[in-house]
Amino acid sequence: MNIDSGWFVWVVVVITALLGTVFATSKKQEIAGRSKWLLAIPLLAVGIIGAGLQFGFFTDLGFSPLSSGVEPVDTGAVADNVTLEIPTTPSGVSSVCQPGSSVSKTTIKLSAANAVTLAAAGGTHAYKVSGGSVSTVADGGTFDSSPGTTIEYLLMNESNTATYLGKKGSFTVPCSGTYELTQPDAKGFVPGNKIYANGSLTMDLFNRDGNSMAAGVNNQSMTTNDDFKLALRFTAPSEAGFEYGGVVIFEGNATAIDFSKLQLLDSAGNELPSATISSSLKRAGATERALKLWSVPGMISNAEYNYKIRVVAPGNNQPDTGVMSGGFNVSFQPKAPSINDGVFADPAIEDEDNRYNYLYQPTINGYLV
Question: At what angle do helices 5-25 and 36-55 cross, to 10 degrees?
């Protein structure tokens, strides 16, 4: 049995208020031997307060209506033939899908496209499902995976050809039935399946007088304790570039240059972060040759990137024009992703076997005289 508590409360409120009104308006000053106000005031107060609660006038004070006035109060009887319908996820459907969804797998398409022309890049792409083993698929090929799983991918499968370098990324398989890489990647670059073509990076190095030092001309004079900066400029190839940047390599005579003070500075005067290279990849040369390397960010599509190389001469030596004594090389090596022992490694200039991920090293030779 259900009693509508809303109506019950209103009946009590109305009866109480009516009794209070009757007593208050009575011509008798005493009722049952007592002052009529001792009876009227409490009854009126109960009626007024009860009505206020029901109308919600006191909710700001933290008091709620004694009843919604609509919902019945269950007195213990159980209604017959009542069934609660709770949506369920079918067997085999991932929990990332909405209740009631019938999607149990998503077909994923891996394809690479030129970031500028949008033409198909071709090639073969590598992928891993939830950290499993490496699999491959041809450009535009598909494979199935369950919604909610993590897919890691490496476009171009670390082939790193003269046309394109690889690109790595990851995503969670959606509950959509089909999925293709179209969103920007984690680094905020172009959509995940767009890759920049390689090209010829233009390098220029200038002496203190602003003259190009390319081809071994316009050598820079240097005396003991000298401290100066050489301007280094990169111009990215047209509609192409190196999305992950690379490493600038300075190689010279450790007795002619103070390598502890050698710096590569950006346009704001901040030194670029240092980098390393395995000994097996160092250029063959005289024993006094030393290296210093810095990481530089991506360089894309005709843009210019300007740096300064700070060179300091030691206080106990005067360089000469010998090929190994006062000569130096400035080169650039691009970064590219690779697969290291089954792991999609972050972009670097070399892999776990100390091999260049992509051998492209434009170089400028200069002399300090």
Answer: 150
pLDDT tens, position by position, 298-326: 999 889 999 999 998 887 555 544 443 56
Three-state SS sequence of 95-151:
CCCCCCCCCCCEEEEECCEECCCCCECCCEEEEEECCCCCEEEECCEEEEECCCCEE
- Comparing C-alpha atoms, which of 273, 258, 117 is closest to residue 195? 117
Contacting residues for 261 by C-beta, under 8 A, at least 6 apart: 227, 310, 312
Amino acid letter, residue 322 = G
The burial of 210, by beta-carbon neighbours within 10 Å (0-12 exposed, 13-18 middle, 19 or more buried), is given as exposed
Q: What is the pLDDT of residue 81?
A: 44
Q: How far apart are CA 344 and CA 126, in angstroms?
A: 9
Angle (nearest 5°) at CA 180 between 176 and 182? 115
Instruction: Mark whether 227 and 283 lie in a shared domain.
Output: yes
Query: Does residue 94 form part of some domain?
Result: no
Count CA within 13 A, CB hemisphere, residue 168: 19
Euclidean distance between CA atoms 3 and 12, whole angstroms: 14
Indicate the number of domains in the chain.
3
Tokens of 329: 């090389």
3-class DSSP state of 87: coil
Residue 271, pLDDT > 70, answer yes
Strand partners, 150: 172
Give the number of other CB atoms < 10 A from CB of residue 71. 11
Same domain, 211 and 307: yes
- Domain membership flag for residue 343: yes
The mean pLDDT of 57-67, rounded to a whole number, is 61
Answer yes or no: pTM beyond 0.85: no
- Residues 151-203 have pLDDT tens digits of 999 999 888 777 888 889 898 998 988 898 765 544 444 457 888 888 889 99
Residue-wise pLDDT tens digits, 108-140: 999 998 888 888 888 999 999 999 999 999 999
Q: Let me know whether 166 and 38 are in one domain.
A: no
Residue position matching structure tokens 């149990």: 104
Which amino acid is located at 37 in the chain? W
